[in-house]
């Protein structure tokens, strides 16, 4: 049988204390790992929620931009139809363009239709192809301006939505 002095051996007590310390540290380490895992999972969940909310806002913004672009395309198509009709009318001569011209001093004898209508400035009628070419140039310029305005509108829409989200 063991004596009481055998139980009082300091090496046994030191070994027991070391074992308890190791077990405590392992349990504490596992608790820290579990807490860290829970924190990571919470951060991932929060990230996913924010990401999903951002996707919803992005889809809504994309839909607004698509609607704006669709409206612009319809307006542009209507404008092109109108411009094409004007250019066709100018080419065929059903619509005419005249410009004021400077001439040497002349006397009007009342046979000039412009003078009869009260316009005393002499005028010259443009050739149909020249009038159509000028109308085409003006239409191209208007088209470019409309394109730039549509771009600015889309930019302002995105900027306004993103500024609202940031606040």
From TrEMBL:
Alphabetized UniProt keyword annotations: Coiled coil, Membrane, Transmembrane, Transmembrane helix
Domain of life per record: Bacteria
Transmembrane segments annotated in the record for this chain: 12-27
Positions in coiled-coil regions: 33-64
Keyword Transmembrane helix in record: yes
Name the UniProt record assigns to this protein: Bacteriophage lysis protein
Organism: Undibacterium jejuense
The organism's taxonomic lineage, starting at the top: Bacteria, Pseudomonadati, Pseudomonadota, Betaproteobacteria, Burkholderiales
């Amino acid at each position: 049988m063991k004596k009481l002095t055998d139980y009082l051996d300091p090496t046994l007590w030191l070994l027991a204390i070391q074992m308890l310390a190791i077990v405590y540290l392992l349990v504490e380490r596992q608790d820290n790992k579990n807490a860290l895992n829970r924190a990571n999972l919470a951060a991932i969940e929060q990230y996913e929620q924010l990401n999903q909310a951002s996707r919803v806002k992005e889809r809504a913004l994309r839909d607004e931009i698509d609607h704006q672009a669709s409206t612009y395309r319809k307006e542009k198509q209507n404008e092109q139809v109108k411009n094409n009709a004007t250019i066709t009318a100018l080419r065929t001569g059903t619509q005419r363009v005249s410009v004021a011209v400077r001439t040497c001093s002349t006397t009007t004898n009342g046979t000039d239709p412009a003078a009869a209508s009260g316009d005393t400035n002499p005028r010259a009628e443009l050739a149909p192809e020249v009038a159509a070419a000028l109308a085409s140039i003006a239409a191209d310029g208007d088209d470019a301006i409309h394109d730039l305005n549509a771009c600015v509108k889309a930019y302002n829409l995105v900027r306004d939505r993103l500024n609202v989200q940031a606040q």
